[in-house]
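Batch job 17 of 40 flagged for manual review because the log was empty.
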Amino acid sequence: MTASPAAVAGKSNRAVLLTVTCLGQFMVLLDNTIVGAALPDMQQRLHTQLTGLQWIVDAYVLLVAMLLLSGGVFADRFGRKRVYLTGVVLFTAASLLCSLAPSVGWLIAGRVLQGVGAAALSPASLALLVAAHPMPQERVKAIGLWAGFSGIGLAAGPVAGGVLTEAFGWPAIFLVNLPIGLVLLLVGLRHLGESRNPGAPAIDVPGTVLSVLAVGVLTYGLIEGGARGWTSPVILGSFAAAAVLVVAFCAVEARRVAPMLPLGLFRQRLFTVSNTAMVVVGFALSGSSFFFSQFFVYVQGSSILRAGLQTLPVSLGMVLVSPYAGRLAARYGYRVVVTIGLALAGGGLLALGWVHADTGYGNVWWRLAVVGIGFALTMSPLTGAAIQSVSPQEGGLASGISSTTRQIGAVLGVAVLGAVVRNRQSGGGSFEAGLDSAFVAAGAVTLATAVFTGLLLARSKPVGGPAVAHRPTGSEVLGTPNEVPVKAS
């Protein structure tokens, strides 16, 4: 029996949509890891210190962290295609600005715009995918492919960053986004259909603004404290302002009908424990990854290309193990898998604290792999635990909050561990000694969190199936029934 032309056209359109959304997410995830390989070259050519490198990374992660939830609501409310393509345009234009940046200040500005674009692009891509696959089995397969491309982007970043930086210099890592963005825009305008959810909640503008300001001011204090002095009026003022903004954020969110962060969710112990652990995952993983390439280049004397290859065991470990983390949690329980994962990651980071200039790579790569495997075992189960702790109607929001807490941890990790390195150097130690202290600190925090989850991560097994895989945000994950398809323009 031959399929009807309409059915063939429908499958063709879904294939195009799947390609476009996966490629967009690939571009965003590639940017997460490709920058790390280029940091040594940026430091040399832009004549910046460690503080400048921290801002280059955190400017992007901060905006992604604080706008991710709002990006999902924007997509539902104003049209998934519109928000997705707007994110593509902004991310691509910002990449061009980054590649042309004549100074650290301009590069940081470009990274801020990239973060805004990514916060629109990523949740909207998943929203488009979910809206186009109403059948649960088809949806699971589509999300699996989408997540798979994310993993490829993470794994490809260090190698691509090393190759491009070695051959053309750091601007090339941003220029690679231009052809991808152009293809996404042209194909998306022609082939993507529009959809929206008119029942989506209103945008929580006060909550969004206060959250960005609070985390931004706190990050400023943590990054600049080492250079300006921890007791300087500016730094003390920034910490005080951050505290006031956090209190204001909580007060505003408690009174809003549809807050971006419903504080009542944190009354559930499983939700609170899983998100606390997710902050530590972001803190330790991103904070330590910030220094991997710098260790190989500055301490062991590797080239930028070789350093990119040498950091690959972390991302490969994550990509290879992540697909099995949910299944393991379904079989053995959240508590067991998460606690073992955190213990492995913490042990790997502590082991990195004993690596020195004369340590052979044969005694380094397995430590990196253990870190990647450990964190891979934690992320999906922690998100699954957060989702299980709330009602089905709040599952998408819980997933988005889990992603946001991890990103907040990433912002703080780069800032705090950078401060550890700077303080060790200012006390007369070497850069190598500072890195050792940073890795040990990250490992100690991670191991302490393993004890925390081992004691408090309740309700050990998922109900009714495997742990839910990590998904970015919003009501789009739920497949809410009040979808309104709109013909493509």
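Reviewer: the log was empty due to a logging misconfiguration, but the result itself is present. The chain has three domains: 1-192, 205-257, 265-474. Unflagging and moving on to job 18.
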